[in-house]
Amino acid sequence: MSAAGGVKDETILEVRDLRTHFFLRRGVVKAVDGVSFTLRRGEVLGLVGESGCGKSVTALSLMRLLPKGGARAIGGEVLLDGTDILTLGDSQMREIRGRKISMILQDPQTSLNPVFTVGDQLRESIFRRAGGRTAQIMREAVAALRRVDIAAPEQRIGQYPHQMSGGMKQRVVGAIVMSGEPEVLIADEPTTALDVTIQLQYLKLLQRLQRETGMAILFITHDFGVVARLCDRVAVMYAGRIVECGPVQEVFEHPSHPYTQALIASVPAMTGPIGRLTTIEGQPPSLMDLSAGCRFEPRCRHAEARCREAYPPPVGVGPDHTADCWRLQPA
Ligand SMILES: Nc1ncnc2c1ncn2[C@@H]1O[C@H](COP(=O)(O)OP(=O)(O)O)[C@@H](O)[C@H]1O
Ligand SMILES: [Mg+2]
User: Fold this and answer.
1) Average pLDDT, 10 consecutive residues per value, the chain (331 residues)
2) How far is residue 253 from each of residues 108, 246, 328, measured CA to CA in Å?
3) Rounded distance between C-alpha atoms, residue 215 and residue 329, angstroms
4) Class of CATH domain 11-100+182-328
5) Distance between CA atoms of 293 and 296, rounded to whole angstroms?
6) 8 A C-beta contact, residue 36 and residue 78
7) CB burial of residue 116 (10 Å; 0-12, 13-18, 19+)
8) How many CA atoms lie within 13 A of 253 on its CB side?
9) Three-class secondary structure of residue 58 per DSSP
10) Structural domain boundaries of the chain?
11) Å from CA of 51 to ligand 1 middle
12) HSE-up of 77 (CA within 13 Å, CB side)?
């Protein structure tokens, strides 16, 4: 890693006991229910887990962009550079969003406005950050497109999103996000909607941008192969909680939570092509009807009585590596 991209032992984002629930007529969905992690300056932290485990709701909570209709962050703290952004007013949050903390969504279609050219959208973002004169902003916009490997940016800048391929649109989203010079980037499955051949190019682009800028990335994926390629540390999420967290190599070599072990066992080879998770036997629990105990207990081959009674506290299992499992508790 370059000096700019080097991981510093300094926390930029700290999430403490975050709880985001959906209050629906048929009950309360505990989508995020006690999530804690830290993101350090200059690192890429992977957030991995099966579909529906609460990854996107975690991300949207950090951006303060929860869907309308019953979703509320009811507890916890999200300290961005020391400030709890859950306590900020909407206008203060608008100042921070897109500048200190930014997000790339799965589908570029939802990030781009179909009625404006990509140049309009890019110039607005550049102007918001730094102001400036039209000609200067135009030059910066062209440079921003070039930086994300868009060929002939002078022509592309006048086009509308529908005139571009999915991969190119996602690169435009990347250019817009980078123009805000965020310190924290949340990338929520940013390659899932792209063709397989384009996915790897996009990951390489993100990796380069990370190294050039030194921004910290929370990279959300259900794909452990991508974690191995891109991330410094990984947090494994299951049914609204992070069940294991540690350096990528350490977690791959010594997976400690039975859920992580099952996930890793399902990945063919870490050095091979990007692998998808195969399914683990059984179903994740309903987030509307969670037991007091470990959420993985019904699917766990090591389950004991105490696993049903109370949620296990995190146990240090290696350097910078923790897992929430009763079996790991010292006797
Ligand atoms: N708009 C919504 N209304 C009600 N429940 C939702 C909504 N969005 C998500 N959820 C609930 O939150 C859980 C976590 O969703 P999400 O964070 O999108 O999962 P993923 O890990 O696949 O990103 C889902 O299983 C679902 O029960
Ligand atoms: Mg998601």
Assistant:
1) 56 98 96 98 96 96 94 97 96 95 93 95 90 90 96 96 96 96 97 91 96 97 91 98 98 96 75 53 91 95 95 96 96 77
2) 35, 11, 16
3) 36
4) alpha beta
5) 9
6) no
7) middle
8) 9
9) helix
10) 11-100+182-328
11) 9
12) 10
Tokens of 144: 């921003």
Q: Which atom of ligand 1 is nearest to the CA of 288?
A: 27
Ligand 2 is an ion; residues with CB less than 5 A from it: 55-56
Distance CA 291, CA 279 (A): 22
Contact 171/202 with Cβ under 8 angstroms? yes
In 3D space, the residue among 326, 282, 287 whose CA is nearest the CA of residue 307 turns out to be 326
Residues written for the chain: 331
Atom 18 of ligand 1, nearest CA residue: 56
Element (H, E) at 260: helix 258-265
Q: Is 0.90 topped by the overall pTM?
A: yes
Question: How many Å apart are CA 185 and CA 183, to the nearest integer?
Answer: 7
Pocket mutation for ligand 1, best pick of 19, 24, 26, 29 (most atoms within 8 Å of C-beta): 29
CA distances, 269 to each of 52, 157, 197, 278, 279 (Å): 25, 41, 19, 13, 16
If you take atom 12 of ligand 1, which residue's CA is the nearest one? Answer: 31
Report the separation in Å between the CA atom of 52 and the middle of ligand 1, taken as the mean of its atom positions: 5
Non-local (6+) Cβ contacts of 177 within 8 A are 98, 102, 103, 104, 185
**245, 38 contact by CB (below 8 A):** no
Exposure string of 223-253, with b = 16+ CB inside 10 Å and e = fewer, is bbbbbbbbbbbbbbbbbbbbbbbbbbebbbe
